[in-house]
Amino acid sequence: MKVAMLVIYFGVMIAIGLYCRKNATDVDGFVLGGRAVGPWLTAFAYGTSYFSAVVFVGYAGQFGWKYGIASTWIGLGNAVIGSLMAWVILGRRTRIMTQHLDAKTMPQFFAERFKSPALKIGASVIIFIFLIPYTASLYNGLSRLFGMAFNIDYSVCILLMAVLTAVYVIAGGYMATAINDFLQGIIMLIGIVAVIAAVLVSKGGLMAALDGLARVSDETVSATPGIFASMFGPDPLNLFFVVVLTSLGTWGLPQMVQKFYAIKNEKAIQKGTVISTLFAVVIAGGSYFLGGFGRLFSDQIDIAKNGFDSVIPTMLSGLSPFMIALVVILVLSASMSTLSSLVIASSSTLTIDFLKGHFIKDMSEKKQVLLMRILIVVFIAISAVLALVQYKSSVTFIAQLMGVSWGALAGAFLAPFLYALYSKKVTKAACWVCFIFSSVLMILNMLIRPSFPPIMQSPINSGAIAMLAGLVIVPIVSAFTRKPDKQLVDDAFACYEKPTSVAQKTALGSR
After folding, report:
1. pLDDT of res. 508
2. Are 14 and 167 a contacting pair, CB within 8 Å?
3. Which label site among 61, 82, 285, 318 has the fewest CB atoms less than 10 Å from its CB?
4. Among 363, 339, 342, 341, residue whose Cα is nearest residue 353
5. Alpha carbon distance 92, 95 (integer Å)
6. For residue 7, how far is the Cα from the chain centroid?
7. Which CATH topology does 2-488 take?
8. For residue range 246-279, what is the model confidence (pLDDT) as tens digits?
9. pLDDT averaged over the chain?
10. Do the Cβ atoms of 351 and 360 come closer than 8 Å?
11. DSSP element (H, E) containing 348
12. Is the pLDDT of residue 420 over 60?
């Protein structure tokens, strides 16, 4: 049963990749699907890129264990801040200005918006360095579930996921990824609801599970009775930082923001906002809600020996073979969709923003697409090797890898990108300061973590602080540095003033 379901799943993924080859013949088609992707595909592509094994296995397990049922706030924050507000605040403006500037990637946006090739190279280097650890972290959570379900070696899991993702992304580019994301998103929606129901039933139902959680005590965490079943849990401050990192972070992640570049039209933005938000409520809210009951299985879990990444797999190990197969496909779907999004972002950035024009002067459309396909193989191979090294040496937990990556990327790009869409006063110097501040902060957090203040020793907290600091750094530095050229800025913002026809139900015309 389990093997048959996986074979069918893999076959469908590859078939979609081959079917979409016709849409991936030029750079615009390969990277953005020709900027003609509808609301359902865009919303599901956004959601499935957002939530992966890192969330379902790493974050839901770790924070469910630490904060109990209060970890559900993380999922709700992801839905409201990371999805709803991101679409409302960034969606339309990103689509309009990136098309106006003919920008296909985030570094290219900075280059055109500020007429600074150096900014493009700097952003490219940051993306290349910090997307790799995030990509590597995707394999780890998947391997634990595959090991539980099939008792096969971790290296086989990595090889399967890497090869299959490479095949359909290389063949069909962004459009293949978007269609696969849609199917993978449906699997994720069905899977998470079924898994939550099965786990709660195994503990006597929702009320019995909540009652059991309220009886759990851990004197090393809190002396308050029932703290793990309370609204804000034992540590509201650190819970807040997790909400900030995982929710606000999407605003500055290249692989997430790039989804807005490809939206088809205004109606697609409106529908996509609703679909994406509801998807996040179910997937993120459901994952953290499930993780919140982790301590009901404390008699089977040894955190000291196996780490937080073992919480969710242990919770699911007692389910039926069919449910376990569904869980494996659920997490495989989430991981492959995120992996495909990351490698497209990495390969397109390195090709378009770093190599083209700087190291390879003349590069035709066909050569660019070919180079991106080659780099996809390279990135997947590097991340797979890092995943194996990380597993063998137990360097860090999934959440820590993701925290470093998200903190550096979103901390560097969130504020410059957001302000550049809305303000004419942002300067190149402000972008550089934000880039350097966040990158250096997260690198130091990896290298000399014990020297940091206690609140910042967690890469998650440091990442959240980097994002929030950027929102202050950019306007302050912009106020004291050389103003941008007025003509340059006016040209960039002219795209918002172009007249367009709308239906009378949207706006009254004049007689």
Report:
1. 46
2. yes
3. 318
4. 363
5. 5
6. 27
7. Sodium/glucose cotransporter (1.20.1730)
8. 899 899 998 888 888 878 777 888 889 999 999 9
9. 84
10. no
11. helix 321-348
12. yes
Give the integer Cα–Cα distance in Å for 304 and 334. 27
| Structure tokens, 438 | 């966040």
Dump the DSSP string for 123-175: HHHHHHHHHHHHHHHHHHHHHHHHHHHH---HHHHHHHHHHHHHHHHHHHHHH
- Structural domain boundaries in the chain: 2-488
The reported pTM is: 0.86
What's the CA angle centered on 381, arms 376 and 385, to 5 degrees?
Answer: 150
Q: List Cβ neighbours of 503 (8 Å cut-off, separation of 6 or more).
A: none
Q: What pLDDT is attached to residue 511?
A: 45
Sign of the four-CA dihedral 92, 95, 99, 102? positive
Mean pLDDT of 338-343: 81
| The total number of residues written for the chain in this structure | 511
Instruction: Measure Cα distances from 157 to 145, 299, 391, 407, 442 in Å.
Output: 10, 28, 12, 28, 30
DSSP-derived 3-state class of residue 282: helix
Residue 448 has pLDDT above 50, yes or no: yes
Range 451-474 average pLDDT: 91
